[in-house]
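User: Show me sequence and structure for the first protein, then do the same for the second.

Assistant: Starting with the first protein.
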Amino acid sequence: MKKFSTIAALIAAGLSSASLTAAAAPADATIAQAQAIAEKSQCAFRADAPDKHVVVRGDTLWGISAVFLQNPWCWPKVWGMNREDIRNPHWIYPGQIVYFDRANGRLRLANVAGNGTASGGVPTVKLSPRSRVEGLGAEAIRSIPASAIEPFLAQPMVVDVNTLERTPRIVSATENRVNLGQNEKAYVRGELEGSTSFQVFRPGVPLKDPETGNVIGYEARFVGTVKLEREGDENNDVHTFSVVNTKEEMSVGDRLLPVPPTPIMSYVPHPPYDDVKARVVSIYGGVSVAGQNQIISINRGREHGLDLGTVLSLQRYGETVKDRTDNNRLIKLPDEKYGYVFIFRVFDTISYGLVMEVTDIVKVGDNVISPIQQ
């Protein structure tokens, strides 16, 4: 059987040298032993991982990670990425090759006509400085399928309580109309904070924290966009806007949020930086259950350390049942992990995520935890 060095097994498994000493005393370990060590880590490579993968258009970071790794959210660990790298991974493009460096338990990147090689004959890519220009990274592969979340990126989906209290609001329309259509004028009060283009939304269903019962936000119904025509002044704090377009009629009382920049969804899938214990708050669209590629909200957000690309595990609370073999004594069954959620939009206290790789339906109230807690 082919030998696999103990150090290689250590790196592949992501263990410390002290852990290795306890886990594998021989100077060399067989592949089977190395895999046994790796199984103790959350960041093990797949037993059937290929030697390389040619990146093609339509690939995603999540998909490529799953080709090599048992857990796709382990991508940053095997690449040795820091936090800034995770936020700006515009460096994998169609036509490049991802190599599995088995000797060092790492993944490496090279161009198809890669110049030079790393130890073990693995090609490496030579980097050169690039100027930051608009559109840089537009061709880089995405974290997850863009089509699944694009409709949710630009329009407000949820507004937390603190944000709702400070958003500008429509207070009147021309000729004292209640509703407004395209090209009509809307009069607004509130702080604009330098923005001139706004989305108009209507606070909808209140979102309650499953743990406390408190309202932590509102699902927002997008109704259209407006642009600033004339800003109020110290003598009159009413701003004049014109309606650019409408999805439905705007009304007095509707709220405004600045139009967000369109993000490039190339955030690397990664576990949270701190342990997270959250709950599913709602399933987008008002339905009672969710499945693969549907959108859910959870009761944790920016204030709890979540950022774009965070991957969390979905768990179902174990039921309390009667043990018929022990005089019907009540016992609690173990919590069961059944999938992942990829966080793609983060607010102060709430986040939205895409349901990934589920083996069961998602229900409001289900546990959402750090993958490392499994």
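Switching to the second protein now.
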Amino acid sequence: MTETKVMLDTNILIDAVVSSRPEHHAAIDLFSLCVDRRVRGCVLASSLKDFYYICRRYIPEPDPRGAAIRVFLEILDVVPLDRDACELALDLPEPDLEDAMVLAAARLSDVDIICSRDRRAFGEGGIPSMTAAQVLSAMGC
């Protein structure tokens, strides 16, 4: 049986680290599936950058954000956002370019599910979009 490949959107990374976020526990459980290799988690490098920038308001200095990114790099595959993905993103029906880039990279990397709390994103992309809780449910957890 092959692993389900799940692209994690930036908001899922933030949910995993910031305990006050509404989907914190589901995100933590999803990361546990990645650690156990029941799910093959992946992420764009740009999502790691965005995570770092956004989490400055949640996580005080000195910089534990870098520690979180190191953990993400140990657990997740980094999917390329290369020229092909950028060109594909421009042709996708996704209205938000950043979401289109996630979708394009997911398509080119044979991702099965995009995990995001953004319910408006990825609707017409051909890859199911689910919240962390929905992914857990789909995996029988």
